[in-house]
């Protein structure tokens, strides 16, 4: 209870500060409402003023509408009734357009029925009737004609009247509307549109960073960051630099000026920055790289200057720039196509502020990107980003830690084990694991279960990897048979080759855009050998080989497989140096400086040689795949028919047909974590791998 009260008091203090800042930026800020009722001077918001003006306008409008003037009539009625009965006292022509009729007082009672509901003035005050006369000359002739033979002739009076309100509205009204429209547009821009901060268009060059001060604590801390042990250690050290700098500078060292978080999407780079904001007891500035880029020239550089100006005033502090590649791309990368000068100017200003003539003391810059290869070299040098912290995809143990975090709010069944789930999700990022847990909970709720079971998690993994099942998709029997033998070919070869990924499940139920799918459990490796790549390539070609063997024709179903193995073969030859004819060379530029190059780093003769070697590798593995399927034709056909019958088969079905894999001890998936140590021990004791068969040796040599 005490902690909650403390947080509420802090929030109120922060809100007061924010209101004060808004009052400075808002010209009507002193009239903002005091909702707290804390005894301070009452305030009124600008919108209250707008409301009062609108109410006054409505009151005036109602008053005007209730004080209607003379009754509208026509010349024929005036002539036949009023002039004929000698009821008219005088006629006044206003602005040579309208005639106003004044009735004699002793004759007003004859017109009481017409006055009722239309004439709100006292009955003895005129004018009583009005009508349009057309032209003055015509009106005078008609009046003379109507009064022929009358004892008392009435002559019209003429006068000029000026409607100041109407003239003002028609003269300056359009300009007022334009000004109001202009004010409204820039008011909208100042609320987060293109124009910038709370100060409106005049503060367009101000920094858009969110500031978390000492009394604005972020709820995320390092305990909420699972896995990422090495990255978390380096980030924690940055926090220690600011908390106790003397510990690191007493021996003459300098505090690092910046750290760059690099890694694939979803691995937790922004989460690490949030943890720094929650742990560091210093001001924390947070913004995205795109916040610097603006439609106005020079705004990006101005915002960079303003950001570092604020940071220097609050030093020691931390600046976090997310997705810094939005402004940090290498300059002059593509001069032939033109360049974005505004972005380059912003980058130049950032480089100067980070390490220029004027030094920054006590300001540490954190940045995150998943495109470190395209960043400018000047940005990456020591003195600006002194450290590059690589945030990679989590391994087996780190995935277990991440699962433990995301499983806390879920109601789990006893069969849902963290160790099993972490082994079922190789290559998943932290964001993917969070999505798996959420999808599993939704699937369990959809099935009206009391808790989330292991099967719900498996279904969630299938849903994320393959997409939603499409059981109602119309597929002919011939297509279904082709898909079954195609997937059975993949499964057969992957089961019979040592380095191919072990199979988990095969299905011919359409998922997403795929008509069939197979789930494999990749071995987590740090390096990959040529034999492993060749085995994976032969397994990928198993579907096309099965179609040719069984149906004597091929289909378009192997498109993804061919795309995958083609890229893999070119990588083996031109990047990994795994071709004897091409040699131990690599044409890959890891610096990313040749992304827009129009020339290849090798000659046309070498290009032809690379193409030939790629074709040899692919053809040899295709021949190898067909030979394996022919040698195990009976098992392949059994598996395909079983797949047609059940639509989904598992690794146990392959084991019943082909037998247990002799090298499968390192791929065992335990149901719980009790035998994990025994498994690791068995793998460690296994010093020699089983030799390949003679046919496999010959195919590998080819």
Automatic annotation (TrEMBL):
Organism annotation: Draconibacterium aestuarii
Binding site for ATP: 263-270
UniProt GO MF annotations: ATP binding; ATP hydrolysis activity; ATP-dependent peptidase activity; metalloendopeptidase activity; zinc ion binding
Entry membrane topology: Multi-pass membrane protein
Protein name, per record: ATP-dependent zinc metalloprotease FtsH
Region (Disordered) residue spans: 1-38, 665-702
One GO location term (cellular component): plasma membrane
Pfam family, one: Peptidase_M41
Biological-process GO terms, alphabetical: protein catabolic process; proteolysis
UniProt KW Transmembrane helix keyword: yes
Compartment(s): Cell membrane; Membrane
Active-site residues, as the UniProt record annotates them: 487
Start and end residues of each AAA+ ATPase domain: 255-395
